[in-house]
Amino acid sequence: MSGESASLRSLERDAAARRIRRNWLLSAPALALLLVGASGPLLIVLVYSFLKPGDFSGVIWEPSFNAWFQILFSRDIFDDTVGLADAHLTIFWRSVRLSLSTTLITLLLGLPTAYFIATRSGRQRMFWLFLITIPFWTNLLIRTFAILEMLRNEGIVNNALVDLGLIAEPLQILYTDTAVLIGMSYVYLPLMVLPLYAAIERLDFRLVEAGYDLYANRVQVFRRIILPIIKPGIIAGSILVFVPSLGAYVTPRVLGGGKNMMIGNFIELQFGQGRNWPLGASLSILLLFIVMAALLLYVRVSSREEPHG
């Protein structure tokens, strides 16, 4: 009997091995296409980041680490001394600061919005969700120009403030970091609301009632019951807002007027007027690693939440 059992297990292992090989062969064309289509352009950008810039554009096929050096440091053209690239660091800091601020503002606005929608009845819930998705029907550029019309000196916001007597002269909001922050918060707010709604919808409100029955106040109920349950939604929404905000191009370009650049605008500048393709490529790879780090953080935090349901 033991010999027959061993033979049966051997046959099962062979069959499993053949099934795995067949699956790999069937998926090989799709994997090859994915590898070439997705990794190929990234590989070209990575190679460009280690080359010298051409005289008028493009690259010179000579290996160099100068582009990576230029991200943080600059060399004086007269005495060849090395110092920090203040302009680059300012752009990095502005990008991170505005992206974090956008994430925080959308969270503060999105959480009560998602809670309101999730606590409505079925038909009302669908109606409010429909309203949230309406901005996606319009092109991002058109939405950004609509914000521009509202924020300009003769726009709706300034006219309303002047008519209410709150200010004597129109405020200069357009072409400032404030305008960029307002624009990105408006554009990316739905990306925060939808994951929060999905998390709050799963909330069992009997737990909230149980908390009140045990004499917990509202802050304690939110901190000890609601917040742990909706934390995955908060993290997912924060990632969905922070990542595109960091690489935003259209909104800072239109509302910032080209003076308040972010990383996306800086990269475009290097491939255009700057004619420094290696620096643009190295900045693109750096931005990719920042986004990857944010996603890995999300996966790590999410994996910690799973064992607790």
Describe this structure in words.
Residues 92-298 form the ABC transmembrane type-1 domain. Helices cover 73% and strands 5% of the residues. With 309 residues, the chain is mainly α. A hairpin with a 5-residue loop joins strand 1 (51-53) and strand 2 (59-63). Helix 3 crosses helix 9 (218-246), helix 8 packs antiparallel against helix 9 and helix 11 packs antiparallel against helix 12 (277-305). It is flat and about 90 Å long. It starts with a helix and ends with a helix.
Present the secondary structure layout:
Blueprint (H helix, E strand, L loop, with lengths): L1 H47 L2 E3 L5 E5 L2 H7 E3 L6 E3 L1 H33 L3 H12 L6 H12 L4 H8 L13 H25 L3 H9 L4 H29 L3 H6 L7 H9 L5 H29 L4
Antiparallel strand pairs: 1-2, 3-4
Protein name: ABC transporter permease
Membrane topology: Multi-pass membrane protein
Family: Belongs to the binding-protein-dependent transport system permease family. CysTW subfamily.
Q: Care to give the gist of this entry?
A:
By secondary structure, the chain is mainly α. It is 73% helix and 5% strand.
Percent of residues in beta strands: under 5%
The total count of strands amounts to 4
- Alpha-carbon distance between the two ends: 44 Å
Strands in their spatial order, largest beta sheet? 1-2
What is the C-alpha radius of gyration, as a whole number of Å?
26 Å
- Please work out how many helical segments DSSP would assign: 12
* Low-pLDDT windows of residues: none
Shape field: flat
Major β-sheet profile? 2 strands, antiparallel
- The residue fraction in helices comes out at over 70%
Order of helices and strands: HEEHEEHHHHHHHHHH
Mean pLDDT: 88
Structural class: mainly alpha
